[in-house]
Amino acid sequence: MELAFIIEKFVLVTVIFLISLTVAAYSTLAERKIAGYLQDRVGPNRAGPGGMFQPLADGLKMFFKEEIIPTDSSKALFILGPSLALLTSLIGSAVIPWGESIQIADRLVSLQIADVNVGILYIFGVVSLGVYGIMIGGWASNNKFSLMGAIRAASQSISYEIPMGLSIIALLMATNTLSMKEIAEQQHGMNWNIFYQPLGFIIFMVCSFAETNRTPFDLPECETELVGGYHTEYSGFKMGAFMFAEYLNMFLASAVMSTLYFGGYNYPGMDWVNSMLGPLFGPLVGMAVLLLKIFAFIFFFMWVRWTVPRFRYDQLMNLGWKVLIPLAIANIVITGIVITIFDKL
Predict the structure, then answer these.
(1) 46 SS3 class
(2) Which residues, including other chains, have CB under 8 Å from residue 68's CB and lie 6 or more apart?
(3) Bridge partners of 102?
(4) What Å distances lie between residue 205 and 79, 278, 280, CA to CA?
(5) Which helix (H) or strand (E) holds 109?
């Protein structure tokens, strides 16, 4: 393996890692600012100009806060839970195509860490592993509220991964590929999949809310019923890891939705911009456009949290099994019929 290739991937991994951490950290500030605006009050404004240093202050507080491990807990698993949750939320972005390849000297450098031809399956595998961190943490705490939150998270994840997978099947029927890069390339310009799969996108987005445990599907950490849910017994850095993993999952879900349905790094007039800026800076504009799409989805996640009430657990299950799964199956049938008709024309 070439040394240049290893250096390229190392630099790309480092950049994506830093972007992910920065977005997750400042998502906490954005959430509090948006909540303040929607509730007609001032958000954090003391730490730095406009509260810009608030995420750093919160991170330092979490890092230096006392770590409390319950006496009767399974200590190794108690530590493994948040570690696994944080790890799985970080590795999912490896198959996201962040932009077109850029030309540096005589080398063509890909802005995708791993061009896996089954990228969608990889993301589903990583997402399904994320719930293990919650389950392990909730069970190892030896607390009935933590255990109930972990059980809720597991059943919620199972219930909503089914319609999410079915919604992706319809998209795969239309694109004929599992590669995230190929799906992004097929949406060149404004040929976005949202125009061909609007119902599939709505189902996928609703399931993303459930998979990331965001309101109105935040039943695993429902403080009115379960104190703090699966992280009731956690404090300090471990508590921060669980919270950080939630925002990283939100970032990953937004990146996946932007890539699958909204063209990823593609935008109108892309060829003209690339011809004006050249093969080095043109693709960076596409990367910036993808980040803007991700930020728009993150804002939507936050807007919904502060405007929509939480579901009851029976409503959550009914929506997943009785509404979303039939809709996803109907979407597959409709997509198959439309594809067959167009193939015969």
Answers:
(1) coil
(2) 233, 235, 236
(3) 109
(4) 31, 35, 33
(5) strand 107-109
Q: Where are the domains of the chain?
A: 67-344
Owner of token pair 């850095």: 237
Is pLDDT above 70 for 318?
yes
> Within the chain, where are the H helices?
3-38, 54-64, 75-91, 119-140, 144-175, 180-186, 198-211, 223-226, 236-261, 270-305, 313-318, 325-344
Question: Which among 67, 25, 62 has a CA at the least distance from the CA of 234?
Answer: 67
pLDDT in tens, 255-312: 999 999 999 999 988 889 888 888 888 888 999 999 999 999 999 999 998 888 888 8
Distances, alpha carbon 57 to alpha carbons 54, 68, 140, 228, 270, in Å:
5, 21, 29, 23, 40
Query: What is the spatial distance between Cα 305 and Cα 199, in angstroms, rounded to a whole number?
Result: 22
- For CA atoms 72, 77, 78, 81, the dihedral sign is negative
Q: What span, in angstroms and rounded, lies between the C-alpha atoms of 10 and 106?
A: 19
- Check pLDDT > 70 for residue 91: yes
